[in-house]
Amino acid sequence: MSEGGRPPGALRRATLDDRPAIAGLIAVSARGLGRGDYTDRQIESAIETGVFGVDTELILDGTYFVVEAEGRLVGCGGWSRRKTLFGGDRFARREAEELDPRSEPAKIRAFFVHPEWSRRGIGRRILERCESEARAHGFRSLEMMATLPGVRLYRALGYVEDERVQYEMDDGVRIEIVPMRKSLAEP
After folding, report:
1. 25 is a domain residue
2. CA-to-CA distance for 63 and 111, rounded, in angstroms?
3. Domain containing residue 29: CATH number
4. DSSP string of 109-153?
5. Alpha-carbon Rg of the chain, whole angstroms?
6. Does 172 fall in a domain?
7. pLDDT band at residue 63, thresholds of 50, 70 and 90?
8. Is 183 within the bounds of a domain?
9. Which member of 41, 130, 135, 176 has the greatest number of CB atoms within 10 A?
10. pTM of the prediction?
11. Per-residue pLDDT, 51
């Protein structure tokens, strides 16, 4: 942790210029932090099929964030007011319709941290920003499809797991993901 108890690095909204660096960070994070939970084949398939990938719509909506430290991106993640629950630009199953914050949960999306920067509060910091913004936009709850490496963080921050899902990617490879939810109580 840095002085003052904040994690290192500057948190800011992602820009379109960040897309290549975000794509690189996603791949490094998935390969480095996912190995304890997924096989190499599952990780590479998730990257190739776009299950793990950059979602430009989140950047354009202004709901995707990055953390920079030492001149590079070390964390990313966001929230969405759209129906798509997971997947990047290349992911075929996308739903761009906007959600009704009075009756539908906002989506927590695409959290990845560089393995060399894990366990320093970066994911928590981005998630707290996402929750705050979703609440400010009138959302009463959040949901996500968590990767197995992320479940521990989300559980520690009040998210409740549902039954794990075996998701089949376009190439036939299956990956286990976890639906999770959280109610947004007033601060």
Report:
1. yes
2. 12
3. 3.40.630.30
4. EEEEE-GGGTTSSHHHHHHHHHHHHHHHTT--EEEEEEEHHHHHH
5. 15
6. no
7. very high
8. no
9. 130
10. 0.89
11. 85
